[in-house]
Design brief:
By secondary structure, this protein is of the alpha+beta class. It has 21 helices and 15 strands. Helix 6 packs antiparallel against helix 8 (167-181) and helix 6 (116-130) crosses helix 11.
Length: 622
């Protein structure tokens, strides 16, 4: 009897465990498989609209490959047909959300760019990136002849001319189309060349180059050869070989600049027509949410007050038409300009909907749109950053990186191809070029003046150390357009000759007295001493106290005078520079900050000066 009870208990537990396990398995399947397979395939088709099997490899002539090549292509397609299927468990709820965010098509992208926010997200970075000037030089050339410099200068002038090539605008449009459609195509217009052949610089005849053109992706089809379709090891795998226009023109990829906005995975490249992600596709949901919330704001402001009044429900049901008319009349008088009447004892109250932080909700949606577009919100919305004591420096740095990327990835390759074609067409010159853009953050006039001041001190240090000469500094100032001296003549005018300090010293251009390098040995004092930052000479056998007293008397001479009313001693620029350099070198920093009257021998004269901060005035010269 006892054994039978144990057996029944064992059977019961076994069956219970099996039922629990089966229930859990069913639950797991339901969590991941909420949709039938046919619906899942439809969702998959939203993201994978085309495959590589939709593209047939072509030959250079434009016709399909021969039967042998087609057999190879068919075998390749048969072996790879399953790579587009999803076999792993996936939560259908999550998958549904992301699977529908596939390629929306070029036509939809064009329509979406009509919105001001989406259009600005595509346009603004390209306009800011093209503003800085750029320099053109031969690629890999250490020294450029003056004749070649003139040619480069002439080519850059006609290239930037809006009535001729207007190449900067072409480059900007190229980058803008790349953001709008995820891809952009530009190639040179050259008379008499066969674009189906690989690029050949010798095919460009004199005067045949007419400029660069940018074409929207709706006007061309991409074609791939067998290498691009069937060889994953190839550097050209899943990259277009030819671009075919509606007029039948087929352009080999070596002639074009093909810009792609982001790298798409291989299984999606056929869907995106081997391009990248369009900005409108990435942000249109966020832009809609931002615009919707912003449009709700005035509606909320107008309807935030809710009027609540007691009503006889039975009377309302008896005569609904009359009641509705009365409610309409009340609505007309409910604003701040009207007067609403009520019977004594009736209860009427108004409930206001709080609009606190509504502006933050709106701004958050726009900031999400800016983030999706890869632009800082401060630039896209032209607003000051808020929160966390933000200064905007981080946002500016990130935006500069975006602009630099556009310059390097989009502008530079197109400009380099343009100048190569132009040089061959105009001068018969077969050279490759490099293009470098100036810094994006242009300094203000004050910042430029501070930079020039720092440079001047650097130049003076190098000249005094014998590293460079004054002529080399002059040449550097002439070449720097921001120096303020870029219009200097090639030769130094006679009235601008260096200050005459006497005959050339015999000790390698300096004095043997290390304390005063501007003095000459035969006339310089025998001894020096320093007191409170003053460098005082001892002459005619006087003692240090006597020399110090003489120095103090000279300084106190100006104590009761208004320094601003004392006319400075007139000296030329060269002498002035040497004197101020001498005082600046030997006076302690604290003395210069505190300021005062100082006396110092700078051969062949002794100077009394007023020096405080950046103010320097020569009072006497003996």
């Amino acid at each position: 009897m006892f054994e039978k009870l144990l057996k029944k208990a064992d059977e019961y537990l076994t069956n219970k465990i099996k039922s629990v396990v089966a229930e859990n398995e069913t639950t797991d399947k339901l969590e991941h498989a909420l949709l039938p397979d046919i619906q899942r395939e439809k969702l998959l088709a939203c993201s994978i609209q085309k495959t590589h099997m939709d593209f047939k490899p072509v030959a250079q002539t434009g016709y399909a490959m021969d039967s042998t090549a087609m057999d190879s292509c068919n075998r390749f397609n048969e072996n790879t047909k399953d790579i587009y299927s999803i076999r792993q468990p996936l939560n259908d709820i999550i998958y549904t959300h992301f699977a529908t965010q596939g390629f929306i098509g070029f036509q939809a992208c064009a329509i979406l760019t009509q919105n001001w926010l989406i259009n600005k997200a595509c346009l603004l970075p390209t306009k800011d990136a093209i503003k800085p000037n750029y320099t053109v030089d031969f690629k890999g050339s250490d020294e450029v002849l003056d004749e070649d410099k003139d040619k480069i200068k002439d080519m850059q002038a006609i290239s930037d001319d809006k009535q001729k090539f207007d190449i900067k605008e072409v480059a900007r449009v190229f980058a803008e189309k790349k953001r709008q459609f995820g891809q952009s195509l530009a190639y040179p217009l050259i008379e008499g060349v066969n674009y189906e052949e690989p690029f050949n610089i010798d095919a460009i005849k004199p005067g045949s180059y007419k400029g660069m053109t940018v074409i929207d992706p709706v006007w061309y089809n991409v074609e791939l050869d067998s290498e691009a379709i069937m060889n994953p090891e190839s550097l050209r795998f899943f990259k277009p070989t030819y671009f075919e226009l509606p007029n039948g023109t087929r352009v080999h990829y070596t002639w074009v600049q093909f810009g792609v906005n982001g790298e798409v995975p291989d299984i999606l490249k056929s869907t995106y027509r081997f391009g990248g992600y369009p900005i409108p596709q990435l942000i249109y949901e966020r832009a809609y949410a931002a615009e919707k919330v912003a449009n709700e704001a005035p509606m909320l402001a107008q309807s935030k007050r809710l009027l609540v009044a007691d009503i006889n429900v039975a009377a309302y049901l008896t005569n609904t038409a009359e009641t509705v008319e009365k409610l309409k009349a009340i609505s007309q008088f409910r604003d701040n300009w009207g007067v609403m009447t009520k019977r004594p004892g009736d209860s009427v109250q108004q409930i206001d909907t709080s609009l606190t932080d509504l502006d933050e909700v709106i701004m958050t949606q726009y900031q999400l749109t800016a983030a999706a577009a890869g632009i800082t919100a401060t630039k896209l919305l032209e607003t000051q950053p808020k929160g966390f004591n933000s200064t905007g420096d981080y946002e500016d740095d990130q935006y500069k990186l975006t602009l630099t990327s556009i310059q390097e990835d989009d502008f530079a390759p197109l400009l380099e191809m343009h100048y190569r074609c132009l040089a061959m067409s105009k001068y018969g010159l077969d050279r490759e070029f490099t293009v470098r853009f100036e810094e994006i953050d242009t300094p203000t006039e004050k910042e430029r003046a501070e930079i020039n001041e720092i440079n001047s001190r650097t130049y003076a240090t190098y000249v005094n150390a014998g590293v460079i000469t004054g002529d080399e500094v002059r040449e550097r100032l002439k070449e720097d357009e921001d120096s303020g001296f870029n219009t200097l003549s090639d030769e130094i005018p006679e009235d601008n000759e260096p200050f005459d300090f006497g005959e050339e010293p015999t000790n390698n251009g300096g004095s043997s007295n290390e304390q005063n390098p501007f003095s000459m040995d035969e006339d310089e004092p025998k001894d020096w001493f320093t007191s409170n930052g003053a460098h005082i000479p001892i002459e005619n056998g006087e003692s240090e106290p006597e020399a110090f007293e003489e120095h103090i008397e000279k300084c106190h001479k100006y104590d009761k005078m208004d320094i601003n009313k004392i006319p400075p001693v007139e000296v030329d620029k060269q002498e002035y520079a040497i004197v101020i350099k001498a005082f600046d070198t030997y006076l302690p920093l604290e003395e210069k900050k505190q300021g005062g009257i100082f006396v110092k021998d700078v051969f062949p004269n002794r100077y009394t000066v007023y020096y405080k901060g950046n103010k320097f005035k020569i009072l006497e010269r003996e």
